[in-house]
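Hi R.,

Here's the chain you asked about this morning:
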Amino acid sequence: MLSIQKKLVADERGQPQEVIISWEQYQQIIEMLGLYLDVAAIADLRKARQDRMAEQRDACVALNATP
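And here is the predicted structure, written out as tokens:
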């Protein structure tokens, strides 16, 4: 589990307005959420999920498969 170290920035009334986190933690979050993926990679992942849900095993490649 990721523990986020943060700094809160409040306005004059003490209401939270912004959160500051380290660049390293920002990058970890981006990677965990897959936000760095381009449109083609996201489309490939969606297609793979559809194949898995439809149990289309011929669309899958075994991880231990040899070329």
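One quick note: The chain has two helices and two strands.

Cheers,
M.
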